[in-house]
Design a protein that fits this description.
The protein is mostly helical and 313 residues long. It has two domains: 47-174, Cytochrome Bc1 Complex, Chain D, domain 2 (Orthogonal Bundle); 194-302, Cytochrome Bc1 Complex, Chain D, domain 2, CATH 1.10.760. The chain contains ten helices and four strands. It has helices at 2-29, 47-60, 62-65, 105-114, 135-145, 166-174, 194-205, 208-212, 262-271, 292-302; strands spanning 85-86, 163-164, 236-238, 244-246. The strands form two sheets. A two-stranded antiparallel ribbon has the order 1-2. A two-stranded antiparallel sheet has the order 3-4. Helix 2 (47-60) crosses helix 5 (135-145) and helix 9 crosses helix 10 (292-302). The mean pLDDT is 95. The chain binds heme C (2 copies). One heme C binds at residues 201, 206, 208, 211-212, 237, 245, 247-248, 250, 257, 265, 268-269, 274-275, 280-281, 283-284, 287, 298. One heme C binds next to helix 2, helix 3 and helix 4.
């Protein structure tokens, strides 16, 4: 009996030492590195590409990377939950050292798909990945990053380095992983089919589903419709003051947007206006870069998905 107890205490000692060792390892190593593949790619910076890239980036990148002067030099992201640490976005201007002027098109493309920097460092979920955005849309964003837009003019200004918490480092060791680089081309949808176009925007291009499903913890980025509470709202998002603004239920249930006319829906999505005339709060930004045809496509698509009963307070 005594002997067994002794063995148990020795074993417990070993387990605790290993755990402490593991924790110290995670603390010191930080966010893990992975192998990156070299993607051969040269994007033509045509006016058409830049215009479309800017349009998409205005809805996907700018709110996180723009400093107060509108230049994309990075800033403290006050809407990232405190548990993840003090998180700063980066300078993504054309500056060769401080920005991404020295990166190849392939390196940017690889990062946007997988979340891996050219040095192999993994970017945690506070920098989103774009696994379902069409190849040509991503290339347009890269063309825009290479353009002479004033927001991207080379700037030395730099936000401080992020200080990810132990929790972030731990989760990046056991749970969050880079996304696989797509094996097949991802094509733009047929814009003559409203439902197909709407689905592309909701699941892929703008990823409305990510904010509008139950929780970031249970969303499925590669197969969005498998996310818990797909488009049913209630995701506890934060505004810039760190207060919770739950996302809205955008299924056609009566507790969601069942009563919305197409025009009311356009007013909400493009202009940030609620049915009662009040404005929608951050982080729901007005998606004015979407055309009416695109928003009508979203409206048509949302009518085809399962309704969810969820009255968001
Ligand atoms: C929700 C906020 C958010 C959005 C939206 C966002 N980013 Fe980021 N991005 C970040 C943060 C935060 C980091 C830095 C993460 C870190 O410190 O580890 C980052 C890092 C990067 C980097 C790496 C820069 C470097 O020097 O390592 C690039 C490139 C980048 N983002 C480009 C983009 C582009 C292009 C878009 C739009 C398609 C975009 N980001 C959208 C938050 C965001
Ligand atoms: C960054 C997160 C985020 C993204 C991305 C986002 N939304 Fe929202 N959305 C919200 C939040 C939060 C609210 C609730 C705002 C409020 O209550 O003031 C909201 C509200 C709405 C509403 C208003 C519903 C109502 O009850 O009046 C609609 C409609 C909507 N979003 C549609 C969309 C569509 C379509 C997209 C994609 C094109 C989208 N949202 C992308 C966070 C987001």
């Amino acid at each position: 009996m005594k002997l067994t107890l002794k063995w148990i205490s020795i074993l417990l000692g070993i387990v605790l030492t290993l755990m402490a060792g593991g924790a110290a390892f995670i603390f010191v190593r930080g966010i893990p590195n992975y192998e990156v593949n070299n993607i051969e790619m040269k994007v033509d910076v045509t006016p058409e590409r830049v215009t479309n890239g800017q349009r998409i980036a205005s809805m996907l990148c700018i709110q996180c990377h723009a400093a107060d002067d509108g230049v994309l030099t990075g800033k403290l992201l006050k809407d990232v939950p405190k548990e993840f640490g003090a998180i700063y976005s980066k300078n993504i201007t054309s500056h060769r050292d401080k920005g991404i002027g020295n990166w190849t098109d392939g390196q940017i493309y690889y990062l946007l798909r997988t979340g891996l920097r050219p040095n192999g460092q993994y970017l945690p979920p506070y920098m989103p990945k774009f696994p379902l955005v069409a190849d040509e849309d991503l290339k347009d964003i890269i063309a825009w990053l290479r353009s002479d837009s004033p927001a991207l003019a080379a700037s030395e200004q730099e936000a401080p380095e992020s200080e990810p918490s132990f929790l972030t480092k731990f989760l990046c060791t056991v749970a969050f992983k880079p996304l696989p680089f797509p094996e097949k081309p991802i094509l733009r949808p047929d814009t003559n089919d409203a439902v197909v176009l709407g689905k592309y925007i909701v699941d892929g291009q703008i990823a409305c589903f990510a904010c509008h499903s139950k929780d970031f913890k249970t969303m499925n980025v590669l197969e969005p419709t498998k996310s818990e509470g797909y488009c049913g709202g209630g995701n506890p998002l934060l505004n810039m003051a760190g207060a919770v603004v739950p996302s809205a239920n955008i299924t056609f249930d009566e507790t969601g947007i069942g009563g919305y006319t197409e025009q009311q829906f356009i007013d909400a999505v493009k202009h940030g206006k609620k049915r009662d005339g009040t404005m929608l709060r951050y982080p729901m930004i007005p998606h004015s870069g979407l055309s009416d045809t695109e928003v009508k496509g979203i409206y048509a698509y949302l009518q085809t998905i399962p309704k969810i009963k969820n009255k968001v307070q």
